[in-house]
Amino acid sequence: MIGHAFGHRGVFIGGVAGGLAAAILVARLAAWRGWIVREQSWGTTLGAATGFLVAAFIATKTLSSPIGPILSTLLIGAGALIGSYAARPGRQS
């Protein structure tokens, strides 16, 4: 909403910055609540942020249909899951 004062470009930049901030905060919240182990928080953060950036790109390119923007939001959660899985602690033998 703050970006609206700076025109169309400000809205876009504000949306991307807000989405990236939310991805970081949600990963921290997941670690704080114990939903993921602390070692997975950076992978989850990176995955969610990457998923958000890809989703934002797809959403802006498919605005003529509601399907693209709606389905692209799944990439945020998928990115977080992939990042969390990749960053999981190693298994001890």
Characterize the structure shown:
This protein is mainly alpha-helical and 93 residues long. It has one domain. It contains four helices and no strands. α1 runs antiparallel to α2 and α2 runs antiparallel to α4. It is globular.
First CA to last CA: what distance?
A: 52 Å
- Structural category is mainly alpha
Low-confidence stretches: none
Task: Figure out the total of helices.
Answer: 4
List the domain count as a whole number: 1
Q: Beta-strand percentage?
A: under 5%
Helix content: over 70%
Order of helices and strands: HHHH
Tell me, briefly, the overall form: globular
Largest sheet: none
Average residue pLDDT: 85
Roughly how many Å is the radius of gyration? 15 Å
How many strands appear in the DSSP assignment? 0
Primary descriptors:
single chain, 93 residues, mainly alpha, 4 helices, 0% strand, globular
Write a compact overview of the structure shown.
By secondary structure, the chain is mostly helical.
List the helices and strands and how they pair.
Elements (H helix, E strand, L loop, with lengths): L6 H27 L7 H21 L5 H6 L1 H13 L7
Helix pairs in contact: 1-2, 2-4
